[in-house]
UniProtKB/TrEMBL annotation:
It comes from Senna tora. InterPro entries: C-N_Hydrolase (IPR003010), C-N_Hydrolase_sf (IPR036526). Residues 1-20 are annotated as: Disordered. Transmembrane segments: none annotated. This is Omega-amidase, chloroplastic-like isoform X2. The lineage of its organism: Eukaryota, Viridiplantae, Streptophyta, Embryophyta, Tracheophyta.
Length: 283
């Protein structure tokens, strides 16, 4: 069983380019359309599911091969709402989830890859902020539980603003890289974008895209959410803004051309110029 799984993994990765500095995607895929759904979230989960499904359909109709939803679109971002609306989709138990069923159905029917923003997940008594990823065949490929260990969003500006995610959620414990029809994708959620180490790790693994579904707080996030996005993009040599949603509900389609990234990274191979020997010597 283990050997069969390894063999499958190898032949799948053989379909992609093999140089660690190149992007991992099928050689015939250079351009793709991404649909970003920015949506208003109501207190009614049923309504949110219906609404998200219609936004995904709009994006697919406009030619999106990959559709992204926001962080915590299933219910409002409060401890009470998240606890009430959490879903258990533990593989071992084969538990069912209305949200995952909807995403799976729409991904398969429209043959699109979906990065399902995030929803509250209940697993073995713990609550997680989890992003499910679906392939164009409708299968759940992976789920990313927010943050690698230390990145839960804890902010306490005494008396003025306090939000402690670690009091609500358990932290995830691994990065998430998925090989999809539209290339290799690294996943982070919102606050994860502040940590360049995660993005660099993904870049080292040859991801073509890093997706960060987000729901930033105005208090801590507004002054920097664009800045950190540009920072992570510049670190990883994809600095140009090609589309922006603004503040309203919106379905935005943007075309990505991987061949531009190949040219840029070949011409200016920053990752080969890194001096790990210098950084580690002065620890
Ligand atoms: N949902 C979040 O991770 C919020 C993060 C945030 O607002 C920040 O400033 O970081």
């Amino acid at each position: 069983m283990a050997m069969a799984a390894t063999a499958k993994k190898k032949s799948e990765s053989d379909r992609f380019c093999s140089s660690p500095d190149l992007l991992h995607h099928h050689p015939s895929l250079t351009k793709l359309k991404i649909g970003i759904c920015q949506m208003r979230v109501s207190g009614e989960k049923k309504e949110n599911l219906k609404h998200a499904r219609s936004l995904i359909q709009v994006a697919a109709k406009q030619g999106a091969n990959l559709v992204l939803l926001p962080e915590m679109w299933v219910c409002p971002y409060t401890e009470e709402d998240m606890a009430k609306n959490a879903e258990d989709f533990d593989d071992e138990k084969g538990a069912s989830s209305p949200t995952l069923e909807m995403l799976s159905e729409v991904a398969g029917r429209l043959s699109i890859t979906i990065i399902g923003g995030s929803l509250p997940e209940r697993c073995k008594g713990e609550l997680y902020n989890t992003c499910p990823i679906f392939g164009a065949d409708g299968k759940l490929i992976a789920k990313h539980r927010k943050e690698m260990q230390v990145h839960l969003f804890d902010a306490n500006f005494l008396g003025e603003f306090c939000f402690m995610e670690s009091h609500i959620f358990a932290a995830g414990d691994k990065p998430t890289i998925v090989d999809t029809e539209v290339g290799r994708i690294g996943i982070g959620i919102c606050h994860d974008i502040r940590f360049p180490e995660l993005a660099t790790f993904y870049r080292d693994k040859g991801v073509c895209l890093i997706a960060y579904p987000g729901a930033f707080n105005i208090s801590t996030g507004e002054s920097l959410w664009e800045l950190v996005q540009r920072g992570r993009a510049a670190d990883n040599q994809c600095g140009e803004i090609i589309a922006s949603c603004g503040h309203e509900e919106n379905v935005m389609i943007a075309e990505i051309d991987y061949s531009q990234l190949h040219i840029l990274r070949k011409g200016l191979p920053l990752f080969k110029q890194r001096r790990e020997d210098v950084y580690s010597q002065h620890n």
